[in-house]
Amino acid sequence: MRAQIVPVVIASVLPCCAGAQQPAAPSPDNLPPVGFGTLGQDDISLRFETQNFSISIIPLDERIIRLLAPDTYTSLRRLLESRQADIDEVARRHGIRQALVLLVSFFGKQDNARFDPEALTVTSQNRFFRPVELLPVTPGFGDRQLRQRETATAIYMYEDGIRLFDPLTVSIAGLSTDQWEGILRTIDRERASVEARAAAARTPT
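Request: output the structure for the sequence above.
Response:
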């Protein structure tokens, strides 16, 4: 069964179309300039819909969030900075060099909506990944239960080996999504636009 995908304010094995060419992953050292992005969270997010709750997932990768509009980028950057010590400690403890970090939110659609936060898995390059650690952002995340219209959010960390700039599969509760490939195309187009806008801003008039 496929989850309904709705653009929102976060990825799954995605089959490539025959002959489709994936954009090359930017180097971690080759970051887009800050302040020239125009994307919204909806543009880089995936969402699962179940009877009891919605799940939204945002990749907190600097190569991606710098393509967001400045206010949105600043908000996510501040969140990352506030938890950087925790993220670094988890990476050190698990021997992770380049973790996949996701911001995951569960939104209750009815009272007593129960969820299993550890069940969010990623398949990349035919490898199966479970989160190595969850860092709660909102109080009560560990209760695994939501009231109607309540949100529980955490930072998810996955070990090395997930290729975020290639097609991949995110699954939970027997549902999977295959929209990341399309989001990668949006990211690739916006990166080119950001570079062009930054170059134009540097050019004397």
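The two ends are 55 Å apart (CA to CA).
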